[in-house]
Write a structure and sequence with these properties.
58% helix, 4 helices, 2 strands, mainly alpha
């Protein structure tokens, strides 16, 4: 049943959702850094091809999620990643003859 909230939005109550489905919705929402209501609303808008009223800013969690997944798939440890990054920075600075930035 839909309940009016404002002139431009309404509330939709959905019954009959299994606990397993609700858990999956909450997991997917958490992966995207959202609450379950926002996740379902955006999913409905995307599925139905409805434009949102305003563009959504991606959360840091959403931006970093693919990077985290890729990193986990490499099998590297955090220490190995740190060493790799340090090595790449040194190579870059050597190739570009830049100095280590001064920290204040």
């Amino acid at each position: 049943m839909a309940h009016p909230v404002t002139q431009n939005t309404t509330t939709l109550e959905i019954t009959g959702i299994s606990l397993a489905l609700m858990k999956r919705i909450e997991e997917r929402a958490k992966e995207r850094g959202e609450d379950s209501g926002s996740f379902v609303r955006e999913w409905l808008q995307e599925s139905l091809g409805v434009a949102t009223d305003s563009p959504k800013q991606a959360s840091l969690e959403e931006i970093l999620s693919p990077l985290r997944e890729d990193f986990e798939n490499t099998g590297m440890t955090d220490d190995e990643l740190g060493e790799f990054i340090s090595h790449e920075i040194k190579q870059y600075r050597t190739a570009h003859k830049t100095k280590t930035p001064v920290r204040s």
